[in-house]
Design goal:
Elements (H helix, E strand, L loop, with lengths): L2 E2 L20 H7 L3 E6 L4 E3 L7 E7 L2 E6 L5 E7 L4 E2 L12 E4 L3 E7 H6 L5 H24 L5 H16 L3 E3 L3 H7 L4 H13 L3 E3 L4 E4 L1 H8 L8 H6 L1 H34 L4
């Protein structure tokens, strides 16, 4: 576990989504000495269902898999969450966590020792109001993930999942989860996910940069998530399948070259925005 020099809340790119960052200046000033930022590794369990957490955490950089365990004792994915996700908040009410949160990739969290908060009397009405808003947003997020499973066809479900992931990462240039993670979320196989990713790429909904990164083409993915069959996009319907395919083939090299440069710049900017001050 690596503790980092932490950016103050007003300078944090995650502030508007953060339970702590949304507090007024006086409250943030009282909290600041008790907050530490640390790195976490891929696969680390940041919150475990049934356990009362010792710390409250806010996800600053990265993505986590949300899991729920039922009577069969098996943890099953129910969604993903990104920047601003609060974890360990059940400890503020001395209750066990109702979900497990597992890191999909390395990232960073801001965390506070719950006992220290209670000793210093920092849990006021304004804080609990923001906590209630976070819980409401969390329920809506889980409902969105559940909704995806009711989209007709595996390609449409995958398109819906990628749109949500882009929202979580706050960018159309995203780090893609592994096929195993997507398969578990969508209750399908890795092979089906692999075929779906290839199909969405051919359909112009996803532009791959490498194995783990790609650009989400929101309008096209939205059409597929609404149930439009692959191969029946608006442009293809107007010009015919052969002409559309030829146009895509002729413009693909230039588009890939241009996106590669924009992707590199976006990654550099994002890293600079969230990196700790020296």
């Amino acid at each position: 576990m690596t503790t980092l020099d932490r950016k103050a809340c007003p300078d944090c790119a995650c502030r508007t989504r953060c339970l702590l960052g949304r507090q007024d200046e006086a409250v943030r000033a009282a909290w600041e000495p008790h907050v530490r930022e640390r790195r976490f590794r891929k696969g680390e369990v940041l919150q475990r269902q049934g356990h009362v957490p010792a710390t409250t955490q806010v996800l600053k950089v990265g993505t986590v898999l949300l899991q729920r365990r039922a009577a069969d004792g098996v943890d099953r994915p129910v969604g993903m969450a990104g920047c601003g996700q609060a974890m360990g908040t059940s400890a503020l009410l001395q209750r066990p966590a109702d979900l497990s949160c597992v890191a999909v990739a390395p990232g960073r969290v801001c965390e506070i020792d719950v006992a220290r908060l209670q000793r210093n009397g920092l849990l006021g009405n304004d804080f609990f109001r923001e906590l209630a808003i976070d819980q409401w947003k969390g329920q809506a997020l889980l409902a969105d993930w559940a909704r995806i499973l009711h989209i007709r066809g595996s390609a449409g479900q995958l398109a819906g999942a990628l749109l949500l992931i882009a929202d979580l990462q706050r960018s159309s240039l995203v780090r893609l989860p592994s096929h195993s993670v997507l398969a578990a979320l969508l209750f399908t196989t890795r092979e089906t996910v692999a075929r779906g990713v290839a199909l969405l790429t051919r359909e112009g909904g996803l532009v791959r940069h490498d194995r783990w990164h790609g650009e989400i083409v929101r309008n096209r993915l939205t059409e597929l998530a609404r149930g439009q069959q692959p191969g029946h996009g608006a442009g293809q319907a107007a010009a015919g399948p052969t002409a559309a395919a030829a146009a895509t083939a002729s413009t693909a090299p230039a588009r890939q070259a241009g996106l590669a440069g924009s992707f590199s710049s976006a990654c550099t900017s994002a890293a600079s925005a969230c990196a700790p001050l020296p």
